[in-house]
Amino acid sequence: MNINLVFKIKKYLIVALLVAIVIQGCTKDVDFKQLDDASIHTTYLLTLLYTNLTVVNFLDEFNNEINFTQDVIQVQISDESRGYLEKIEFTVVTENTFDRNFILNTTFYDEFSQPIYQVTPEINIAENSGELTTIIEIPEEDIHVIYDAKYFGFTMILLPSADGSSLNLSDTSTLTIKSSVKLYFNYRDL
Amino acid sequence: MRKLVLLSFLIYAFGYSQNKQVLYDFSNLPQTLLLNPGAEVSHKFHVGLPLFSQLSVQAGFTGFSAYDIFADDGIDINNKIRDAVNNYGTTEFMAVNQQLEIVSAGFRLNETNYLSFGYYQEFDFLAKIPRDIVDLFYEGNTDINRRYSINKLASRAELFGVLHVGLSKRVNSKWQVGGRFKIYSSVFNVNSKLNSGSFFTEQGSNNSYNQHLDNVNFLMQTSGVFIDNGEDVDASYFKSKLLFGGNLGIGLDIGFTHQLKKQWIVTGSILDIGFVNYSKNVESYKVSGDYEVEGFQLNFDPDNPEDYWNDLKAEFDNSIVSDTLYKSYVLLRPVKLNGSISYSFGQSYNDCRFLINPNTYINKIGFHLYSTVGAVHSYLAATLFYERRLSKYLQTKITYTADPYSNSNVGLGIATQLGIFNAYFMADNLLSLNNLYNAKSASFQLGINFSIQTKN
């Protein structure tokens, strides 16, 4: 056989092989529908409320003891995360040097100032308690109220003393409250 | 709607890296002049088939492949996403570059000079995504004291047309030099670079935690994205912007080929030394400042009710200043560098005359370095190549490249010259051909020219 012919055949075989490699690009099995099962669980931590209450907060203008004091925050929570927020977990840290017990009550109000949700349980703060941490969770089925709420109301209730005594201006006790919230998101339908 | 159309286009088309290691210095193709204006050319003239003389597409993501996530292997996709996030580097980048030569031609002016010119359209996208951003999205911010930084966050997207004219000149038997002048016409540009700032949470003093936005400096410049109301964004809009109705700039390519010894050749080029002045439909966004918050301090003072939410918002707005700018800006084009050294061997045999041609070789091996240098991103790729002339009509090139995507990128190019008909096809990442989904990057170039070669 002509040696040149052999070389030529070899050349064209190489080319054919290379072309075959290039055009035979293939893929292994993939399933893009798996994306339907994908979910990303992300947790964001936000600093929240704090306060440092003294006896003045529980006395009226005549220095008579009052049994509760209130404050309110107007909020504007965007709807964008609705459907992805799965759990809300409040962490409240209290420290009380008063010889009195307190209850912290949190209520959500709608745009007409009507109560739509009360956070439970209420936080009981025992007299002369050191640093106490309370964790409160809003269950998934109630999370929609966060988006419906326009005001968050906080009521600090001063419980009566066991011996009938009242607070007076000379009392230097303090009640400190610190808080944060963890928002648990589950991003589905990516 | 027009804004939406353009933004959608931005989202769908990304790109950048532009290493054409197979095409570089391959087979005297006219398109090699775009990679090295000082490349040797053996044509009397060439004309590219309009719209088909070069189509080039490159795409890649250094983070993970589609197969890493979507392999049909029975493993829960959420575990695969977690693995991909765990393996994510400090910063990964996503890139696509697309180039379409509309017209291309050239002719020999005399024995030593070859003039070439043409017009091509190009789209570039690059996004550098730092791990901190991924972790903040994927895990959240419960890691106290960890700083989530945007320092390496950068992106760029651009669609533009380029008119070019270049001259390749043989200085003597050892040196060939060349230059190419370019006029850029940008349809749109988006870029964000040199950002800084971090977000972190630390233990607080008045409250449990103190949260910070620290030294935030973010700038995103856009041009041609937000269009004046009077302009319609349709095909004629893109056409006019591509054809010098857009933001204009100029650039220069320079290159050389040096015959070191009879069989040794050194080449080099610097491409896109230039700039574009963006002055039309400019809208840029700047965010800067520092902010820290411990939360809402409740006063429980019914006599002095406070607007806590709006006070906090006002404090934030005063601390983190957000501006919209309409000032024109100038951007340097990212400079690309090519350099190669090659050794030719195996003298060709003329079958008809039964003679060995002492001046032509059928094999060439060599080493090619490619780099881009830019404010947004720099990139380096090293390639070993072997080129072989299989016949008078057919030439092939095999490359092995290490780059940020892969250390085992094998490429292949084939070029044919049948009479005046010249066609080529080249692709890389051939080792991933058995499973394209597993490739972190891929590219191809193809084209058809008509050319007449000078007689050797």
Note the beta-strand portion of chain A. 35-45%
Q: What about the largest sheet of chain A?
A: 5 strands, antiparallel
**Biggest interface between protein chains, with counts per chain?**
A-B, 55 and 55 residues
Please work out how many helical segments of chain B DSSP would assign: 7
Shape, per Cα inertia axes of chain B: elongated
**What is the count of distinct domains of chain B?**
1
Shape of chain A: elongated
Largest sheet, strands/sense/barrel of chain B:
21 strands, antiparallel
Task: Classify the helix fraction of chain B into a percent range.
Answer: 10-25%
Tally the structural domains of chain A: 1
Give a brief description.
The complex is a heterodimer of chains A (190) and B (456). Chain A is mainly beta. Helices cover 14% and strands 40% of the residues of chain A.
Describe the fold and architecture.
The complex is a heterodimer of chains A (190) and B (456). Chain A is mainly beta and 190 residues long. Chain A has one domain (40-187): Jelly Rolls (Sandwich), CATH 2.60.120. Helices cover 14% and strands 40% of the residues of chain A. In chain A, the strands form two sheets. In chain A, strands 2, 4, 5, 6 and 8 form a five-stranded antiparallel sheet that branches. The longest helix of chain A has 21 residues, at 3-23. In chain A, 17% of the residues are buried. Chain B starts with a helix and ends with a strand. With 456 residues, chain B is mostly beta strands. Mean pLDDT of chain B is 88; it is low at 1-16. Chain B has a 21-stranded antiparallel sheet that branches. Helix content of chain B is 13%, strand content 54%. Chain B has helices at residues 2-12, 32-35, 66-70, 77-86, 131-138, 235-245, 308-319; strands at residues 43-48, 55-61, 91-108, 113-130, 148-149, 154-170, 175-192, 196-203, 209-223, 247-259, 264-278, 282-293, 296-297, 320-325, 329-332, 335-350, 355-373, 379-389, 394-402, 409-418, 421-427, 441-453. Chain B has a single domain (2-453), classed as Porin. The radius of gyration of chain B is 27 Å and the shape is elongated. At the A-B interface, helix 1, strand 1, strand 2 and strand 9 of A face helix 3, helix 4, strand 9, strand 13 and helix 7 of B. Strand 1 of chain A pairs parallel with strand 13 (296-297) of chain B.
